[in-house]
Amino acid sequence: MLVSAKEMLQKAHEGKYAVGQFNINNLEWTKAILLTAEENKSPVILGVSEGAAKYMGGWDTVVGMVNGLLKGLKITVPVALHIDHGSFEGAKAAMAAGFSSIMFDGSHYPIDENIQKTTEIISEATAKGISVEAEVGAIGGEEDGVVGGGEVADPNECKMIADLGVTMLAAGIGNIHGKYPANWKGLNFEVLAEIEKKVPGVPLVLHGGTGIPADMIQKAISLGVSKINVNTECQLSFAAATRKYIEAGKDLEGKGFDPRKLLAPGFEAIKATVKEKMELFGSVNKA
Ligand code: 13P
Known about the structure:
The protein has helices at 6-15, 27-39, 50-55, 59-72, 88-97, 111-128, 155-162, 189-198, 214-222, 232-247, 259-262, 264-281; strands at 19-23, 44-49, 79-86, 101-104, 131-136, 141-143, 146-148, 168-171, 204-206, 225-230. The chain is α/β, with parallel strands linked by helices.
């Protein structure tokens, strides 16, 4: 059964580790992440962007697929199904379909409007036992057509949004989606420390987990980050393994064209990436 992300993130915050949010794109992705979480006894959050939900056939398809896999694969670790960077309408649609956790990203609105919309989302979600992530200070880079400028959040605005009763808070600290450019200045730990002081006890969320060096991840966790989002890295691992299979001509050998064979190396590559992240985040054996 799907669970809200609240308890797993509070435990992570207290225990100084982070739970990974891994974005899903299809059945192989979802199965790979769930099986890795189960094998490593780690809690996990499945992230679904609005673009990915549309690609998979809509919110109901995603909920049906994930619930089916939890049962069919006998998954016992805590799993939250979470909309990633939800719009106001998207967050409501995901809640109606059965998502157990939502992100409402109002970071591109003026702060007053972000507060007003986040308040409305929280009241509906709380009544249904659904966890809520809000965002202050847009995350840089591009994800599914949502482009952010890599802002650094204002710690006072973080407090205003956190005080509305969010479960977890995403704050821009120089992180961006996708690969980091060679001239990236790194995470802004001064601002992260200020935010942590303003909102003690609130699990913080680090987006753009792909390519952040291990030492920065560990420092971020020590400063209150309890949820780390990873998307691009699984896509890169999947693509590289699939490329290798095809370039080696394996799809032309015997029944190598069978999708269950063709997609197997990519599936195993996602599993390896997710395991590596769970070990780095410290969530192994925390289920
Ligand atoms: P990456 O694609 O950079 O890993 O970012 C994922 C993310 O933050 C999803 O919201």
